[in-house]
Amino acid sequence: MDVGYGCTDVFLNRTTKTMELSKIFDFISPLMILAMMGLIMIGYGFVNPAQENNVLQFIFGIPLALGAAGGHFLVRRLVNYNVLYMWIIEAIIVGCFVYVFLRS
Fold first, then answer.
1. pTM of the model
2. Coil, helix or strand at residue 40
3. 2: which strand partners?
């Protein structure tokens, strides 16, 4: 089916699928995975209240979740919503966090 200007319906479907993947990778990024880890820490604190030092789940989980989510939206805005640059910068940031965590 020709929709004008030489574009076909097949081309439009490919573009739409690419845009859907771009939106998925825009939301699921290294910093958002880190934020999800913070939410899991908080949830684990609620599920297992009898655990010793349970308050540490909240003390470390809340800043981790909020800081990573805030960092994601800041980086996303700084690169003008370019998914590739966002992934590169966030992967470097998370890699630095992992390196410091493993060295401590």
1. 0.76
2. helix
3. 8
